[in-house]
Structures are given as C-alpha cells and as structure tokens.
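Q: Here's a chain of 696 amino acids. Please give me its 3D structure as tokens.
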Amino acid sequence: MYKTFSMELAGRTLSVDIGRVAKQANGAAFMHYGDTTILSTATASDKPREGIDFFPLSVEYEEKMYAVGKIPGGFNKREGKASEHAILTSRVIDRPMRPLFPKDYRNDVTLNNLVMSVDPECNPEVVAMLGSSIATCISDIPFDGPCAATQIGMIDGELIVNPTLAQKDVSDLQLTVASTREKVIMIEAGAKEIPEAKMIEAIFKAHEVNQEIIKFIDTIVAECGKAKHSYESCAVPEELFEAIKKIVPPEEMEVAVFTDDKQTREENIRQITEKLEAEFADNEDWLAILGEAIYQYQKKTVRKMILKDHKRPDGRAITEIRPLAAEVDIIPRVHGSAMFTRGQTQICNVCTLAPLSEAQRLDGLDETEVTKRYMHHYNFPSYSVGETKPSRGPGRREIGHGALAERALVPVLPSEEEFPYAIRTVSETFESNGSTSQASICASSMSLMAAGVPIKSPVAGISCGLVTGDTDDDYIVLTDIQGLEDFFGDMDFKVAGTHKGITAIQMDIKIHGLTRPIIEEAIARTREARFYIMDEVMAKAIAEPRKEVGQYAPKIVQIRINPDKIGDVVGQKGKTINAIIDETGVKIDITDDGAVSVCGTDMAMIQKAIDLIKIIVTDFEAGQILTGKVVSIKEFGAFIEFAPGKEGMVHISKIAKERINHVEDVLTLGDIVKVVCLGKDKMGRMSFSIKDVKEN
C-alpha cells in the first residue's frame, strides 16, 4: 500500500504518492499537479567520496518528449543531452537545496526529476523543485529541510501565483522564490523593468505561499519520513586549526589576504601553504586535509575582518565599487563590440546581427515559441583566472550565466517589427575576479548599442555579498563583491536593470536563508550601484544606440504583403523567389502573416528586390507604366517579363506607331522596354502596349 497526500495550490490540486514507485531509492515522491506528472527521487552513496573537499551533489531534470506527445527529432529517436532549459531548471533546484545539506557531508547525492507528463496549466519546474525537497526530506539522507518553491507572475500589475503557460506569455514578471521555514533561500527573476518595491512585494508573496507548502511537506515527513543516517564527518579537526595558528598567526593571515590583486594573494597563500607543509611533513593525515584547513582559515579571517573590523580584503569601503572602465568598437569588422572592466573582472562582448531565419529553434516540453530571436552566450576560459585547462565547451555555470544576461536584456530589445533581426551576443571572459555575469550584462548592453540595435534603455548589473554573524541582525551587505568575498561570504545577490526598474535577479546563498531587511538592503544597494555604472561609466563610452547598423552588418528591410500573395512571390517550387535572389544577391524570408524581410549588404540590391516583390503582388490597372524584358517572341506579339515569374503580352499592333510585318523588325530577345498596362486580355493575361507609352 502507498500513501497519497494532497493540497490545493494556486487553485489546482497538488498530490504526492509515497511508496508507490521507485522504492529502492533513499526517497521517492510521485508528484501530480493537474496532469503534470514527475517522479522525483533522492539517492546517496553509502560512503563519502575520497579525495574531495566539496559536497558532491548532482541534480538532474530529465525532459522526456513523450510527456508532450512528441517523438524526438533527428536521426537518433532518443532524448540526447540535456537541453538548456533542463540545465537551468536543474540549477534552480540545486541552488536552494545545496546549503541545507551538512557542510561536512561528502557522500555522493543525486536528485533526479523525471518529467513524464506536462500540463500547460501546471508548470513542471515547480513540481520538480517540490518533488526534490519532499523526496530528500522523507529519505534517510541528512538534510535540514524542508524547503519549498513558488513562481510568481504579474499581469496588469496583479501578482499571480504559479501562472499557467498562457499567463506566462503575457506576464511582466517571471519570478521563482524558494524558502525555508522562516527565510528566503533562493530568488530567480526575469522582469520587464519592475520597480524595486513591487519586486519585494512579489518575493514575499511567494514566501508566504511557500510556508503553506512547507506545512504540507511536514505532514508527509511525519507519516513517511525515515530516520536520517549517520555519516563520516569530513570536518577539519580543531587541533589542526590550533596548530596552524601557532605557525601562521591571524595577523599574518590578514596581511596575506589583504590585497586587491588576486595573483598577489594567491602567491601569499602559496608561501603559507609551503611553510605549513614543511611543518607537518611527518603527519600524513593532516597533510591530506591541509588545503581544506587553509581554505577555512582564510574564510574565518576574511569574515572576521569584514564583520567585526569593517575591512574588506582590497581596502574598499563597504559600499564602494571597484575601478570601472568601458569602451566600444574594440574588435574590427564585427557588427558591434564593447568591453567592460570592473577591477580584475573583464568582459569583451561581440554582437552579431542576422536575418530572423537564423533565430534559434527550440525543442522543449513547455516552450510556446518555436524560435528564440535573441541569444546570449557566455564563455569562461581557464586563462581568465590564470589556470590551464582544455576547453570542453560550456558547462552548467556558463549556460546559467549566459541565460541570466539574456534574461536581463530581453525586456529592452526592440520588437521584430521595429528591428527585424536575429541577434546574438557573446561574452568572452578575459579576466575573472567576481561577478562576470553582471559585467556581461553591462558589456552586452553597450555592444548592442554599438551594433545599432535600438534598445529601449541601457541595462547594468551588479552583485552584492553578505557576511553574517550569530544573530539575524548581525550582518554586513557588501556592494560589488570580488571573488574572495563570494567564496568566503554567505551570498551572491545579482540584480540587473534600467533606470526604470529591475530586469533580472539571481540570488545564491550558502546559509539557511535571508531575512526581509537583508533582501531590501541588497536590492537598494544594487539600484544605487547600477545607476552609477550606467550614468558615470557606460554612458561615457556610448550614450545611446547608433542610428544605423554597422558597415559589416547585414541590412534588413521589412515590408508586408497580402498573405494571399505569398504563393505568387514564392512561385512554383520556389522558382520566382529564387530568381529574385539570383538577380539581386539578397536573402528573403517570408512569414505566414505576410511579413517579408529582405537582407543584404548592398542597399541598392535590397531596394531592387523589394521593388520586384511589390510588382509581383500588385494588381496592375490600365494606365500604369512598367519596365520589362522581352523573353519570348511570337508571330502575334512579344511577351514581356516585368518581374520574375510575371509576364504580359504586347500584341504586334501595339509595338510601334507604324505598321510592322514582323515583331523581330523592332524587338529582340533580351531588350529592355517600357510598357503601359492595358488591363487583361480574353485569356486573363496582362496586356501591354509599347507604342502608347507617353514620354515625359
């Protein structure tokens, strides 16, 4: 027998079957929300993984195409590697749950979410997040849960809990908030310039809903939860810390980390490490964990300096931003480029424009759009942090950073009607020492403007950090955290936006949640910082979008035709449109609603193609003058092609003012002539006259 638990969530029933399937997993929850069905499981290894100094948590979100009644495309009719959407969903599940596992736990843990059915009314991502929490809470895996997650949308200023797919399409906000019993533990948001106060309201509306879900999870755990298993702690022994402090006093460690140059700090730590390795050469057990001990020692030193002494490792004030620099057009021949530098973080962004036909095609479970017109890609090579490592393509972190920057910029992009281009921006990380994702947003914003993309407003991003003490009101929020403050601090709170409002948020923390005052202060700090970045740095490099696209960018002109005339423009087997392309060298895209985009580098040829298309779709009336080419000569007259696939006939009596016996006496194949339209003849063909053309 299995047990089923249910609750009403945003007007729909959420139910969970425990003990029905996957009984050999440490914990399993068979989730149902409407017709959305997901199997969430949690499994752990019996022993810790040897030789690691981190918690090996793996979160998977498996999209099965049968969930929406599809067979995977391509030659291999199996699901392949995880989609970008699946990777981003896995990250959103990972981020709130990871801090709730014991810090000294080194057993491998896998949280798997198998998406088996998708109801457009019930978002599978939320179900997977709740399923992972429930499966882990009822398992014997040590976990300080539960946590819960809720999505919030906003339509016409009204906040909506767990919006449907249709509501998401018109929502001004896509917010996901995860919470523990008392605090917010994760925030992920994309927004159309939402004011800070409204964003805070939305965050805490989600937090309230999460408390109801947590009560529901508590009832499940009370009936079905297993006792948590004991585990082998990998914490650094206190006696090792004491021995290290005798050799390297706290004052010496402060000097080692107190510098704004990452390489200098790393060299200082390397020297300390060598000294300690020599001292502990005879103690293999301590040598094996010395690296982790030094890391923890640095962490305690930095946190104490910030929290108690109000001193940052690079000497900055708590609200001070590192030195900033911005420039555009640093890469020749590309369509747009910009570089943004903040301390030892440096991003070069390159913008590429293309016809809409080159937009990215999407193949997911809940994608309402089949293409994505704007793509932001982020690369993080090893040289950016002074390391050597072969490039294996983007990992989950790179995909996540690219998606965050993309989400931040989408709200300010012009519509397809205003700017009929597919747009790709690529952020190359030249140097990294904290918050490259936010530097990517700044660089991308400038790169788009340099490329002539008429964005509605510049966008800037900045990150705040946090160091907490023993009580909720003992904390310091840091503006513009560098890498060290991120590694040793408690929070990375990234906010991007315009002068008008927020366009994206991503919050990661390493503690069990944030109070409302911390969130409000972080949002206020990032607002102040991004205004400074936009006004004092970015605007001096490029204040507004250029009026035209660059010399090397394709020129695209869009016109609209009657959808009923699309077949005339395309012609039989594409003959007509291919003839226009061959004659002008342009690229032509036509959508089902009659939008025609003509793309090329030569404006004269673009205009020629447009003129030909207009001729093809125009119903000509008597008296209109056209220019055409003689393509066929018969005894009774000549056929004139005035556009690809469009011909009309000039009767022999209409060729010359004087009588002629043979058409060839006046016309030759290939001649370019002016004709006047006489209407249609008895056979429905266009009838022309050459002799009746009135000379100007």
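Q: Can you summarize the key feature?
A: The domain at 625-689 is CATH 2.40.50.140 (OB fold (Dihydrolipoamide Acetyltransferase, E2P)).
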